[in-house]
Amino acid sequence: MTGSGGLVATFSVWDYVVFAGLILFAAGIGLFQAIRGRKEASSEEFLLGGRQMTAVPVALSLTASFMSGITVIGTPAEAYMYGTAFWLFVFSYAIMSTISAEIFVPLFYRLSITSTYEYLEMRFNKLLRVIGTSMYIAQTVISSRVAVTGLDLWGVLVATGAVCIIYCTLGGLKAVIWTDVFQMIIMLSGFVAVIARGAVLQGGLGKIWNDSYHGGRLETFSFDPDPLRRHSFWTIVVGGSLMWASMYSINQSQVQRYISCKTLTQAKLSLYLNMVGLWVTVSLAMLSGLTMYSIYKDCDPFTNKDVGASDQLLPYLVMDILAEFPGLPGLFVAAAYSGTLSTVSSSINALVAVTVEDFMKPAWPWLTERQLSWINMGMSVFYGAVCIGMAGVASLMGNILQAAMSIFGMINGPLLGLYMLGIFFRCMNSTGGLVGLISGLTITLWVGIGAQLYPPLPEKTLRLPLSVEGCFAPDMNETTTITPFSTVLQTTTPQPRPALADNWYSLSYLYFCPVGIIVTMITGLIVSAISGGCKQEKARPELFIGKSDLICFGCRSSDSEVSDLIDEKNPKNIQGLENQVFSDNEIALKDKDYKEKITKF
């Protein structure tokens, strides 16, 4: 009986059919884009989709690539065990979208870069570019994980690798984006199926909401300023906003998508549409978690040993309540698996971009477009194998949601601090940037690794109570469950806690990123002042953020718009265009031919 512990059903034939069909269809979309774009097989076409993408598919891809597997599995479990404080991230997504769209998009779009880290060489030096790229590669490979696994972990890993490598290698970014669109629809459908079936079983959404209220799951707003508190209004809105800004503003996986848009307006719009997509996704994930609590409020599968880890809770629920509808469990598994495909494919494509642009092109500038195309495909295969291998190891480790965000905060925080120094402070020099980055990274790694070795005490994490009074099994330890998922339960032995464990190491994981930003910026400014940063030669003005970059949503920026203004028979048009481009920076000239036309005239 649902919510009473014990065995649940296994996959049926129809579940396998639905699961396989949806995944193959997603792969087919990628292959179709690959075949359609073969005539334009340039490096820019492979890495940036020819810079001709539009806002809606890019927005869906942005949402899918970072909210995918983590959200499908981790966020419902978060609502089930800790309540709906995570819902406050809707404020963080709004702040993040505004920062990314109004500060970083105009900058990267104007510079016409492929790798985010090209900016670091333009503003500072090549060493900082190499360090930034290396940090991104390390973070992406380490944080790769299969959030949900099938009947056999390594079987699913091989399948994931084969599907992703094929369409990433052949189709590039365009194939990844259009496949993400379909996968995002599947992920949302999986949530809706869980919520709808749960509402029917429990007698409506009102009953689910009422159970959640009496179970303490709806205490969303906590204004406790304690920085050691895992989730509060301040940790999420302040720390969470900066952490997500570091992922969307400078992370290659995201930047590569929105700079593939054909106009600046489309690029900004993609981020605001992505914000709405994040709101919808996290809301459905929260409702799925509340549905799970309403069903299991009297018999918690985790306490009852029906599942071995929190990330198995939602898969357990799916097999419990949807098994009588052939194909629906397969839909959910396809939804979670789509998250895995989306995350891995975006990682592969971004890793190829930074490796080729930041390492190979500078080392071998004589490479032809054909040679670069073959290198792109070869690197896709290589990184596909690396990501899948690391995912297999990472999938055997603890809380997937917090672990992923902790890694992002530790590495992206200092990097975001370096970018902010570069774009806002003209007195910054490369010495200050290098010392600031190393200092920030050292501090975040110190607190992050310390938090993993000495986890915060329960009074700071505030896990809500769960009951097993309604379970039928007389001996909880003998209860078993057959699910199409495999995760190893980690056990830790008690160990002495150092003095820092209950203060510094207990800092909320959402503050790792702000700490990295603050340390990097303060250290960088001090070192720059000491090393003569204020006396250095003036840097190129386009490397900084100006007034025209802020809240300039309707600025013209596409190649076609620039072409329309170039008329050799009308000197006034060309002179006006030249003034706009080089004085106001309102038009992004991505094609060097346009600049040559202006100069020659």
N-end to C-end Cα span = 80 Å
Q: Give helix % range.
A: 55-70%
Shape: globular
Q: What characterizes the major β-sheet?
A: none
Q: At the fourth CATH level, what is the homologous superfamily of the domain at 18-396?
A: Sodium/glucose cotransporter
The computed structural class is mainly alpha
| Mean pLDDT over all positions | 77
Pattern of helices and strands: HHHHHHHHHHHHHHHHHHHHH
> What is the correct CATH architecture of the domain at 18-396?
Up-down Bundle
Number of helices: 21
Radius of gyration over all CA atoms, rounded: 25 Å
Q: Which oligomeric state applies?
A: single chain
What is the strand content?
Answer: under 5%
User: Which regions contain 5 or more consecutive residues with pLDDT less than 50?
Assistant: 474-492, 553-601
Any idea of the CATH topology of the domain at 18-396? Sodium/glucose cotransporter
Extended strand count: 0
CATH class of the domain at 18-396: Mainly Alpha
Structural summary, described in words:
GO terms for molecular function: organic acid:sodium symporter activity. It is a single chain. With 601 residues, the chain is mainly alpha-helical. The chain has a domain of 379 residues: Sodium/glucose cotransporter (Up-down Bundle), CATH 1.20.1730.10. 66% of the residues lie in helices and 0% in strands. Helix 6 packs antiparallel against helix 15 and helix 9 crosses helix 15. The longest helix has 50 residues. The N and C termini lie far apart (80 Å). The C terminus is likely disordered.
